[in-house]
Amino acid sequence: MSLNLRFLAVCASLAFPFLAPAVHAQTSQPRCVEFEILGRGVDKVYNPYRPNDAVDNFTVRATRLSSAVTSVRFLLVDTTPQGNMPKFGVNGPADYGIDWVQDQRRPVFVTGAQAITELNSAMIMFNGRQNTETTVFRLNIPRGQTAIAGRQVERLAVRYQCFAGRDDLGSQLDQFNGLMELSLNIPRIVSAFVGGAGQQHGEIAFGTLGSASNLTKSVSVSVMSTLPYAVDISSQNGLRLQRGRPGEGNIGYRLGIAGLQVTSDATMQCPVTPMPSGESRLVQVTLDGTSVKSQPAGDYSDTITLTFRPNDGYVAGQCRIDNKPPPL
User: Fold this and answer.
1) Which of 29, 136, 223, 281 would be a feasible disulfide site paired with 258, CB 3.0-4.6 Å?
2) Positive or negative, the Cα torsion across 177, 178, 181, 185?
3) Fold match between domain 4-15+190-323 and domain 33-186
4) What fold is seen in the domain 4-15+190-323?
């Protein structure tokens, strides 16, 4: 993907390479049921720049470990919350929910030490000699949330209470053994365009220059990413507008990107962009007034190339320019 500015052309290449512990019951009583997510569970791609929520179902199997168990109530527990709010893994979306498909109005997903009641839990009944039963849940992740590229994992805990008929069988227990794992794959995205969405070409045009001309003009480059990125910056004519062949006329100019001064070929390093809006980086050009007055009439131009690429190791919270020494 290239972004071009005529007069000053911007060409951008698009790069797509593509726990807070659960509270365990302090008891010596044996487990009465074991839970696990069947198959691949949820292993979903979450792109924060897409306009739709990420929704997927997963099936939980409960296996009774004692013939005395006739039913079990249980809650699914987030193990990586932020305060009292859920969070998917360490660097995943900060908000998600889980509903019980059988009764979506009943709360079955918690982040703290809530106890099981008849009003807030899913329930599985065991029939006859069959020791396993299944039930289905729905994962919903609202669109547009900050999520860092990579595989984000949420290992749910299960808080459960077994019953023998109507009587409690022991006390409430927590299961946290890796059998209840959900995962999201956040794609590696570094995307850029000039001006409006999808525009690969742009232009900074000063028009006919005179004594009263505005010698500073700019264009906006929009960036969306799911990881830190770098921009390699180069000027075809060494930050000079040239007329015809080299030596036939030069107008020097100052170049600024994102408020940072570029003095030669350079690399700009930036943190991950806000999601889902991305962010705009202003490319600003200021012509040298003395050069403008001293050069013969004609058409002058230069081409600037901006190459966007992933930069996983960058940890600073703002952009930085590393200017390369000018050639000798």
Assistant:
1) 281
2) positive
3) yes
4) Immunoglobulin-like (2.60.40)
pTM, whole model, 2 decimals? 0.81
Indicate the residue type of 114.
Q
**CATH class given for the domain over 33-186:** mainly beta
Question: Confidence band (pLDDT; 50, 70, 90) for 26?
Answer: very low
pLDDT attached to residue 312 = 95
Residue type, 89: G
Domain boundaries, the chain: 4-15+190-323, 33-186
Q: Quick one: which H or E segment has residue 223?
A: strand 216-225
pLDDT of 23 > 60? The answer is: no
Please give the Cα distance from 17 to 306 (Å, whole number).
18
**CB atoms inside a 10 Å sphere around CB 236:** 14
> Nearest 5°: CA angle at 100, between 21 and 150?
50
Which residue from 139, 119, 41 is spatially nearest to 75, judged by alpha carbons? 119
Half-sphere exposure of 33 (CA within 13 A, CB side): 34
Q: From CA 177, how far away is CA 158, in angstroms rounded?
A: 10
d(CA 191, CA 139): 28
Alpha carbons 99 and 82: distance in angstroms, whole number: 20
- Give me the residues paired with residue 202 across strands: 5
Predicted local confidence at residue 137, as pLDDT? 97
Paired tokens of 321? 């320019």
